[in-house]
Amino acid sequence: MASEKHSVAVTCTAPVNIAVIKYWGKRDEKLILPINSSLSVTLHQDQLKTTTTAVISKDFTEDRIWLNGQEEDIGQPRIQACLSQMAVSPSTVRRLARKRRSGEEDLPPLSLSYKVHIASVNNFPTAAGLASSAAGYACLAYALARVYGVEGDLSEVARRGSGSACRSLYGGFVEWQMGERADGKDSVARQVAPESHWPELRVLILVVSAEKKLTGSTAGMQTSVETSPLLRFRAEAVVPARMAEMIRCVKERNFQGFGQLTMKDSNQFHATCLDTFPPISYLNDTSRRIIHLVHRFNAHHGQTKVAYTFDAGPNAVIFTLDDTVAEFVAAVKHCFPPESNKDKFLKGLPVRPAPLSDELRAALGMDPTPGGVKYIIASQVGPGPQMLDQPHAHLLGPDGLPKPEA
Ligand code: DP6
C-alpha cells in the first residue's frame, strides 16, 4: 500500500456454532434458503475460531484470498456471492463513506471498486473434521462489512457463503428463521439468548475421526430434498413445534428438555440421511458407541445429564452442565482409553480428574475401545464475532500479502 490514505485494513474473529435443531435441506439452492428453521449454540472462541483480515486498497489490481496460508481461487461461487452482497446496498455504503470522510477530511472516498485482499485462518485443524465453513463465512461477512463500512443485518451475506454461517453472527443461542419470501429477505438469524444466559452449560467435542467425509453437506442435503419423504415430513410437521419447545427450554434453562430434544433432533436428522436414496451415513461405530454410552450414563443417574448431537460427520458434540463434566470425561476415558498423546487427550477448558465409581463402570457395561475417541475439546457458550483493534493482529502486511509466520 503506497499510501495509507488509500487503504483500510480490519481483522475480525468469528465462532463455530453447533445446531441443536438441525438445518438440512434448501428450498432455494442459489439464495441458500432452508426448508426449516434451525437453532444453534455458539461455541467460545477461546477454543474454536476463525480469524480473518480484509484489506481494501486503491493500489490492489485484483481480489485475492488466502485460506490457512494457501492462496485459493477467489472466483469460487460462494465467495463471490458474499463479495457481491457488499455491492447490493450502495446507498448504505455511500452514506457511511461520507460519514467517515467528514471525520477525516483528507481521506479520499472509499470505493467499492477498490479490490480486496482477504486472509483467513482457523485456530483448530480443519483436518479434525470440525465444521469450519460456518465460522469462516461468518467471519468473511463481518470483515467485509467492516472494511467497506456497511452496516445492518449480515445474515444474507453470511448465508450466501454457507447456510449455517448466518447463525455464527451472534453469540449465545441463535435461531435461523427460515422465512417465507422468495427473495429470502426474511430468512435471517436472531439471538434467542445471550452467551451469559446459561453459565453452567458446557460443550465437549469428542473428535472421532480426521478422515474426509464421503458426502459433503451441500450435496447430501440436496439428495435428501429430492428423495426423502421423511425429510419433508420433518420440515413440515416436526420442526415448527420443536423450535418453539427448544426456545422455551433454553429460556427456562431446562437441561432435561434441552438435552432430550437435542438428541432426538440429531437422531431424526441422521434418520433422514438414511431415508435418502442412495442413503447417506455420517455416523460410524464409535459414534454409535458414544450414543450408547450417553444413554447408559443418563439411565444410571435416572435423568438426562448429558446429551449428544452429530452433524455431517462422526464427531460427537456433547452438552452437559459443569457439575457433570469431570464424571462424564472419566466415563469417556474408560470406554475409549487414549492410545497416543495421553497428555494431549483433553484440550480447552481445564477438567479436574475424577474417579469412575464401580457402580457407573458396571452400569456402562461396555468393553473399552482404545483410540476410538482421538481427543476431547472442552468448551462453553461464547460471544459472536469480534473486531480486533491491534494492528499486529492483521494477517496481511502493509503490502497486502500474508505476513511471514512468526
Ligand atoms: C448438519 O451450512 O454446511 O451441520 O448451506 O450447503 O453450506 P450449506 O450447508 P451447511 O450445512 C450444515 C448442516 C448441519 C446442520 C446445521 O448446522 O444446522
Helix and strand pattern:
EEEEEEEEHHEHHEEEHHHHEEHEHEE
- Structural class of the helices, strands and pairings? alpha+beta
CATH architecture of the largest domain: 2-Layer Sandwich
**Bound small-molecule species:** ligand DP6
Residues in β-strands, percent: 15-25%
Q: Low-confidence parts, pLDDT < 50 over ≥5 residues?
A: 90-95, 105-109
Describe the overall structure.
This protein is an alpha+beta fold and 406 residues long. The protein folds into two domains: 7-194 and 388-393, Ribosomal Protein S5, domain 2, CATH 3.30.230; 201-380, Alpha-Beta Plaits, CATH 3.30.70.890. It is 33% helix and 21% strand. It is built from ten helices and 17 strands. It has a six-stranded mixed sheet with strand order 8-7-9-6-1-17, covered by helices on one side. It has a five-stranded mixed sheet with strand order 13-14-12-16-15. The protein has a four-stranded antiparallel sheet with strand order 2-5-10-11. A hairpin with a 4-residue loop joins strand 3 (26-28) and strand 4 (33-34). Helix 6 packs antiparallel against helix 7. The radius of gyration is 22 Å and the shape is globular. 47% of the residues are buried. Ligand DP6 binds at residues 19, 22-24, 32, 38, 131, 133, 162-164, 217-218, 311-312.
